[in-house]
Write a structure and sequence with these properties.
With 173 residues, the protein is mainly α. It is 80% helix and 0% strand. The longest helix has 23 residues, at 30-52.
Length: 173
């Protein structure tokens, strides 16, 4: 699971690398990148929402709102994507590959969009390290697999709420 997680996270680094050498193209196509960013976020939202619907309505709404509120505090989306990645790893193999691919594509788009915001290498390095740490924190659930699987519907609702808020907010990287 860790190797797959690192490969999935490489999307951000690849996006930053591509963005560094194609700043002009990204600047001229920013509306298309922003649109693609939202489309991938929307599909990640739909996937997490699909598995969240199995929770009862009270738990779903509570976790969904908690995810929205929590995402105000932790703005970096890679925490929620890491949580989605870990939960999907224990699910259907096809579902896992879809989630991992969407996170990888999201990373490429996200990296391309944020490269123009950060002009210094130190800032870019800090963004990568912060995103990697937040992406890796949910991997702690490996040690609590039974708990995570028993509450997975609630965790999916939590993820749905966080991604939904990121989706409806103005694109602010």
């Amino acid at each position: 699971m860790i190797i797959e997680g690192l490969i999935t996270f490489l999307g951000l680094i690849i996006g930053l690398f591509i963005g560094k050498y194609t700043k002009g193209e990204i600047k001229s196509g920013k509306k298309y990148f922003s649109f693609s960013y939202r489309i991938v976020l929307f599909f990640l939202f739909l996937i997490s929402l699909y598995f969240a619907w199995y929770a009862n309505i009270f738990h779903f709404l509570l976790a969904f709102v908690a995810g929205m509120i929590f995402s105000i505090g932790i703005k970096n989306i890679y925490f929620y994507l890491g949580l989605l990645f870990v939960l999907s790893f224990w699910g259907n193999e096809t579902f896992f590959f879809i989630v991992a691919t969407l996170i990888f594509i999201f990373g490429i788009i996200h990296g391309g969009l944020i490269i123009e915001k950060f002009s210094r290498v130190k800032n870019i390095r800090n963004k990568i390290i912060n995103s990697l740490i937040l992406f890796a924190i949910p991997f702690i659930l490996i040690y609590f697999k039974d708990f995570a699987l028993n509450t997975s519907y609630i965790l999916f609702a939590f993820i749905s709420g966080a991604i939904f808020l990121k989706f409806i907010k103005k694109l602010n990287l």
